[in-house]
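dumping the sequnces here before i forget
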Amino acid sequence: MPGKKLVSDPKTMKSITCKQAVDFIIRKEEEKLSFGQRISLWRHLAICSLCRIFSSQNTLINAAMKKRNDQVLPLSDNEKEKIIQHVLNDNKE
Amino acid sequence: MNPVKPETAKEEQFKGWVREYSDLLFSHAVLRGFDHDHARDLDQDTFFSAWKSRDGFEGRASVKNWLFVILKNKITDHYRGKHNHAGILLSEPDTQFDGAGHWAKASYPKELTIDPAESHDHHDFHKILEGCSGKLSVIQKSVFFMKYMDDLESDDICLQLSITPNNYWTILHRAKVQLRACLEKNWFLIRKL
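..and the predicted 3d for all of it:
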C-alpha cells in the first residue's frame, strides 16, 4: 500500500507488466532473477490471474517437452540396410 | 581356420552399430523438428562420418555417446546456418501483448482443464503439442528443444547457435507464448466437438 515500504530498495517495489512477468517466469527457470525481480514477479502474480494461468501452462509445457525424449520412432530393417549399403559402398573406391 | 580380415571385422561391427542405434538417432532428429526425410539424411550422415573416423574412435567412449556427439554437431551446424533468421523473427511485432505490455484481448490465457488421471487427456495434449511445436520457426525450435529436451543452459545455447543472450530470451519468450496460444486454441477446439 502507498506510504508503507516493506523493503528499503525502491527497485524491488517496481510493478511490472504482463509481458515482463512472462519474461521473468521464463528466466526464473534458470534462476536468472535478482531478488528484486523475484519480488516484482511475486507481486504481479498475486494480482494477475492471466499470468497465473500462463505460469501453470508453462509448467505443463515444460514437463511435456521432457517426456518427448522417451519416444523412439522405429526405422524398418530395410531402411537400416540402406544406410549400411550407402555408407560402405560410397567409401569403397 | 579362416582368418577374418581386419577390415571385414570392422564392417561387421559397423553394421551392428547401424542396426542398434539408427532408430535412436533418427528419433532424436525427428523430435527436434526435422521431417522424416531430413532426419533419415542426418542419420545416414552421422554413420558416414562415424565410418570415416572409425580408426580414431577405437572404443574411447561408448559408441552410442560417440554417435550422438556426431549427430548433435550436425544438428547444431544446421541450426547455425539459419541463425540469421533470428533478425527477421525479432523484427516482427509481438501480437500477444498490447503496447502497454498487457496481454492482448485476443490472447488472454484461459485455464486448460486437463485431468491428470485421464490418459485420454494426456494423449490429446501430447498430440497437440507435437503439432504446435512443429509450427515454430527453425530458430525457435532450435532454442526450445536445446533448452527443454537437451537440458542445456542458456550460455551454452547462445554459444552453440552464436546468438546474443538478449536474442535468446526474446526467442524463447516468443516461442513459449506462441506455443501456449496454439495449444490452448486446439485444446478448446477438440473439447467443443
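DSSP finds nine helices and no strands in chain B.
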